[in-house]
Amino acid sequence: MSKKGIIAVISGFSGAGKGTVVNELVKNYGYAISISATTRKPREGEKEGVNYFFKTRDEFEEMIKNDEFIEYAEYVGNYYGTPKKYVYDKINNGTDVLLEIEMQGALKVKKAFPEVTLVFITPPSYEELRRRLEGRGTETKEAIDKRMARAVEECSYMDFYDYIVENDDLDECVKEMHNLLQAVHYSKENQTEFIDKIKNDFEK
Ligand code: 5GP
Description:
By secondary structure, the protein is α/β, with parallel strands linked by helices. The protein has eight helices and nine strands.
């Protein structure tokens, strides 16, 4: 089996608990989370190389020119992007890398890098998502309605994902995700070098 790490994009509705699932995967199983570059200024407590790689606009545009991003987007006046170097250093070291990005970014990544695995995390039902958002107690009814409406629109993205995982019980979901991601190591897309080696061996 290939010793290289895999790249998996984790997306899901806001409130589906994907952030928690990703953090548990990192804590329990040693996955790495990709660190994005951005031109936005650091917020209080944010650290260079931990939350983001903070760049000037000129630096970011230079990186775009040099094809240093897996994908990038402009969002409310700032650039955000996933640097190739960090991700590739990790996978070449044998560490699996998780990208927690929104659905449009995820599809761009898949188009450019078909070997990337797209995983969609969903709560068990519409009612459960609303219950979780209400349970946070941090948002107005209007804001929650907006997130629910957005989730309805985002449902159609599920068709483009490779795997759909239900987040009902957190511990179960984390275990299922880990099992799934480990199985991805055996996919032919993630074993191209090994396949070539075996073919060379047998076809000579
Ligand atoms: P914030 O400024 O609140 O940290 O992030 C703003 C938005 O940028 C969030 O929706 C976040 O998911 C998105 N974002 C962060 N990093 C990346 C990235 O590398 N690529 C893309 N496309 N979006 C990102």
